[in-house]
Amino acid sequence: MSLQDAMTAVERSLDDLIRSVGKLETQLGAGLDIRRVRTDTDHLRESLTLLKQSVAAAPPAHRRTPEVEMVPISDAPYNSALWTDAQDEGLGSRNGHAP
Fold it and tell me: Does the residue 40 lie in any domain?
């Protein structure tokens, strides 16, 4: 799916949402809850318009997924001296009290 197709699909879905909220509003009246939902859909419309403008101004470059380097981890036990000053709480202070 191209970027334009994805943007069009989002726009259609948002239009459907706005129509559905309108139907709810006629059934429920203009209470606080439905006004909140209406405000949210208005904000979504504004955000989508801003997103479309920014994409039109500077289309995103195709991002290549970076190569993931696998790091082998040995099954050999760790040196116990690494954990000498460690505590279960993770504070790691020598006297056992938080700083």
Answer: yes
Task: Give the position of tokens 């039109």.
Answer: 56
Per-residue pLDDT of the chain (99 residues; tens, 9 = 90+): 788 888 999 999 999 999 999 999 999 888 899 999 999 999 999 999 999 888 888 766 666 677 888 888 888 888 888 877 766 655 555 665 655
State which amino acid sits at residue 86.
A
On whether residue 35 sits in a domain, the answer given is: yes
Q: How many domains does the chain have?
A: 1
Whether 9 maps to a domain, the answer reads yes
Residue 7: which domain range?
3-56
Has this prediction a pTM greater than 0.85?
A: no
Retrieve residue 21's tokens. 């909220």
Report H helices in the chain.
3-28, 32-57
- Joined tokens for residue 83: 């954990």
Structure tokens at 88: 């279960």
